[in-house]
Amino acid sequence: MFNDKVFKALADASRRKIITLLKGRDMTAGEIADQFNISKPSISEHLKILKNADLIGSERNGQF
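The chain above was modelled as a monomer; its predicted structure follows.
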């Protein structure tokens, strides 16, 4: 069921665009950031909000 976190996450146009981008395929944070004219830290914050609302998932790949 929808809750306040979901509504807050969907209230922002950038986050709605991120969800649209991710509908078609998996993308890295860098690939998502390349689609916007905002800083990478801002994209990270948007992704964190979407993840906390359970609207997206994440996984780490590559070197740690």
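The radius of gyration is 12 Å.
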